[in-house]
């Protein structure tokens, strides 16, 4: 199964102060590929996790996620990525416990943000290279979709590079519609009405 879905980065632009009444605090544990993983909302304390996560992505995964040669994230971008309000922006991270260091390691994330398009929110999903094709992208996206439904989000969409076959496979698996981007022939738009 292919499950990497990286966005153009637009979904990262909406971040504000967290409203605890709108963001679930509990952890969700899953067994995936024989390993225990945790899915939880991101928070500002996760800046180091997020920085390491992006730093260790392959060049191709970074290209699909950020549409370019980003290697490390600025402090400002880290703050934006780790700040959610639970309404207009939401992000879940998947982590695994590293038994050698005793620390948590980020292995994937799913997020949405309001971009001014009525009740539509742009999504971005990124999976670490070692965890691609194991079902994590679908699992994280389903968490995001379920959260969006509870919070009355009308639809979700992603603007992706047309050659991102992993995204195409995931979008089809999630029954998202697909259309060419009229403004850029190298991009497609996947959408899902909730």
SSE arrangement:
Blueprint: E1 28-32, E2 35-41, H1 47-55, H2 59-66, H3 75-81, E3 89-98, E4 103-114, E5 120-127, H4 136-150, E6 155-161, H5 165-173, E7 177-180, E8 187-193
Parallel strand pairs: 5-6
Antiparallel strand pairs: 1-2, 2-3, 3-4, 4-5, 6-8, 7-8
CATH top level is Alpha Beta
The name of the CATH architecture is: 3-Layer(aba) Sandwich
Write down the CATH topology. Aminopeptidase
Taken from the alpha-carbon principal axes, the silhouette is: globular
**What's the gyration radius in Å?**
15 Å
Task: Please tell me about this protein's structure.
- This protein has 194 residues and is of the alpha+beta class.
- The protein is built from five helices and eight strands, in the order ββαααβββαβαββ.
- It has a single domain (10-193), classed as Aminopeptidase (3-Layer(aba) Sandwich).
- Helices cover 25% and strands 31% of the residues.
- A hairpin with a 5-residue loop joins strand 4 (103-114) and strand 5 (120-127).
């Amino acid at each position: 199964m292919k499950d990497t879905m990286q966005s153009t980065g637009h979904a990262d632009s909406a971040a504000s102060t967290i409203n605890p009444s709108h963001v679930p605090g509990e952890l969700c544990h899953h067994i995936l590929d024989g390993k225990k993983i945790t899915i939880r909302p991101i928070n500002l304390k996760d800046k180091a996790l997020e920085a390491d996560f992006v730093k260790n992505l392959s060049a191709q995964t970074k290209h699909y996620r950020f549409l370019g040669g980003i290697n490390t994230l600025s402090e400002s971008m880290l703050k934006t990525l780790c700040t959610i309000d639970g309404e207009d922006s939401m992000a879940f991270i998947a982590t695994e416990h590293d038994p050698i260091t005793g620390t948590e390691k980020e292995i994937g994330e799913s997020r949405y943000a309001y971009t001014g398009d009525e009740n539509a929110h742009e999504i971005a999903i990124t999976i670490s290279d070692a965890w691609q094709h194991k079902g994590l992208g679908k699992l994280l996206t389903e968490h995001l979709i379920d959260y969006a439904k509870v919070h009355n989000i009308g639809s979700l969409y992603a603007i992706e590079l047309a050659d991102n076959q992993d995204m195409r496979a995931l979008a089809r698996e999630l029954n998202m519609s697909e259309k060419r981007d009229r403004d850029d022939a190298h991009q497609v738009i996947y959408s899902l009405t909730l």
